[in-house]
């Protein structure tokens, strides 16, 4: 678990930490440039070199991976003595960042990692501690000494501090403590009442029980203030003190927006966990939605943050089963009879032409999500889940039995031919 606290370093400590960030940024950019130059030297055609310049590395030179760059760091410290001021493990962490960036590039198919500009490198990591760095209301870090810390919540008993990350934000300095306890926590079994959640922009979310939560406009409340500040920023001279102060003010506004969004999402997640023992959501990629014409509203709502980070964590703490289902066709399927009902985004009411079901589109989608989640749980467990809503398959079976027992209703088979086939 990660706990984040505010710290108040002295002026000397703050200047030293800022110099550490810049030195780590230099190591990061050098390691990244070394890898990019090696790759470019292998990609250049002999008969089509650049007209400006071409960096040539011998064919016998090995690829500068993490271990080679780490071994070369010792020799670099001898040539650049100011790097010795940074704690030895802290200065190695930028190399791990570069290595992780190249691993992610190959796994996701993205382009090359980018160089860090001045001020973009905002954190450094102390990867291990022999004993707890917390001493009362202060935290002691290697080569930095003690500094006051606001412990607004205590570290749980039995947990040890494994790593400490120092973060520089516009509002001040923070530390993120990674605490660990050697216990095994079993997975939450499916139990209790189940709900399906459909997220969107007209409503932030709609549940299978019929509850719909309006989407708050987090940026809208401070949009005018941001607009004025950014308009002033455009007229400021670059690299001036007034421009730097204005950037800090704008950063504080964005932090206020992010904090309000996160607080609201955590309260909503607890509200949902109070009403369910199982929660099912769609397995969506919100990066695609963020690139569309409604990308600004998608990012402001924080749908991906809620479904992929906040809600799973709250469900884990509250003992609520959390699962994801296939999102294909959830809004085009009738939750009562299973017939496919095509409709575009402008249609907000689900109206089935087969069974006559009439309900809000998002609520119907939430019920389909819930049914898919329950059917997946039953298939995985091999037994029915007690105390949950009926799945679509059981509803269809019940309708089939009722229709067979009543011979005076032949129209049902004409309206639902799939029941005859089943």
The geometry reads as: globular
Order of helices and strands: EHHHEEEEEEEEEHHHEHHHEEEHHHH
Number of helical stretches of at least 4 residues:
13
**Order of strands in the sheet with most strands:** 2-6-7-1-5-4-3
Determine the structural class based on helices, strands and strand pairing: alpha+beta
Number of strands: 14
Uncertain regions: pLDDT < 50 for 5+ in a row? 385-422
Task: Sketch the major β-sheet.
Answer: 7 strands, antiparallel
Chain-averaged pLDDT: 85
How many discrete structural domains?
3
* Computed Rg: 28 Å
Strand content: 15-25%
The end-to-end span amounts to: 49 Å
Helical coverage, percent range: 40-55%
What would your notes on this structure say?
It is a single chain. The longest helix has 33 residues, at 11-43. The radius of gyration is 28 Å and the shape is globular. It folds into 3 domains: 2-180, no CATH class; 187-389, no CATH class; 392-422. It has 422 residues and is of the alpha+beta class. It has helices at 11-43, 66-79, 88-108, 218-221, 223-235, 241-273, 286-290, 295-301, 303-318, 361-381, 392-405, 411-415, 417-421; strands spanning 2-7, 123-126, 134-135, 138-141, 145-150, 160-169, 172-180, 194-199, 205-207, 212-213, 278-282, 321-325, 349-351, 358-360. It contains 13 helices and 14 strands. Helix 1 packs across helix 3 (88-108), helix 2 packs antiparallel against helix 3 and helix 5 (223-235) packs antiparallel against helix 6 (241-273).
């Amino acid at each position: 678990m990660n706990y984040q606290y505010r710290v108040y370093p002295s002026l000397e400590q703050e200047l030293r930490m800022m110099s550490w960030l810049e030195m780590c940024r230099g190591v990061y950019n050098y390691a990244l440039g070394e890898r990019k130059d090696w790759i470019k030297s292998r990609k250049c055609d002999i008969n089509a070199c650049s007209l400006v310049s071409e960096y040539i590395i011998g064919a016998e030179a090995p690829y500068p991976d993490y271990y080679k760059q780490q071994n070369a760091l010792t020799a670099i410290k001898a040539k650049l003595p100011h790097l010795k001021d940074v704690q030895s493990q802290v200065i190695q962490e930028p190399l791990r960042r570069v290595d992780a960036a190249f691993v992610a590039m190959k796994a996701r198919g993205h382009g090359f990692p980018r160089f860090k500009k001045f001020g973009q490198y905002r954190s450094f990591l102390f990867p291990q501690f022999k004993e707890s760095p917390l001493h009362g209301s202060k935290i002691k870090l290697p080569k930095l000494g003690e500094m006051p810390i606001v412990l607004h919540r205590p570290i749980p008993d039995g947990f040890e501090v494994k790593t400490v990350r120092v973060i520089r934000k516009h509002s001040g300095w923070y530390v993120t403590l990674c605490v660990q306890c050697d216990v095994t926590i079993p997975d939450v079994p499916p139990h209790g009442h189940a709900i399906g959640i459909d997220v969107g922009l007209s409503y932030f979310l709609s549940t299978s029980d019929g509850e719909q939560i309006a989407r708050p406009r987090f940026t809208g409340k401070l949009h005018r203030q941001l607009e004025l500040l950014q308009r002033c920023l455009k007229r400021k001279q670059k690299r001036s003190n007034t421009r730097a102060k204005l950037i800090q003010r704008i950063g504080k506004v964005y932090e206020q927006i992010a904090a309000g969004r996160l607080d609201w999402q955590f309260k909503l997640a607890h509200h949902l966990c109070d009403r369910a023992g199982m929660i099912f959501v769609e397995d969506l990629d919100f990066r695609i939605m963020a690139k569309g014409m409604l990308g600004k509203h998608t990012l402001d709502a924080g749908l991906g943050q809620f479904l992929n980070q906040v809600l799973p964590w709250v469900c884990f703490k509250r003992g609520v089963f959390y699962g994801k289902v296939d999102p294909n066709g959830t809004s085009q399927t009738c939750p009562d009879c299973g017939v496919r009902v095509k409709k575009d985004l402008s249609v907000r009411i689900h109206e089935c032409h087969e069974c006559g079901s009439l309900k809000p589109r998002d609520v119907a989608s939430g019920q389909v999500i819930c049914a898919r989640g329950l059917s997946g749980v039953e298939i995985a467990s091999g037994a029915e889940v007690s105390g949950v809503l009926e799945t679509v398959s059981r509803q269809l079976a019940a309708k089939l039995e009722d229709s067979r027992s009543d011979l005076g209703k032949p129209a049902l088979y004409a309206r639902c031919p799939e029941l005859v086939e089943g």
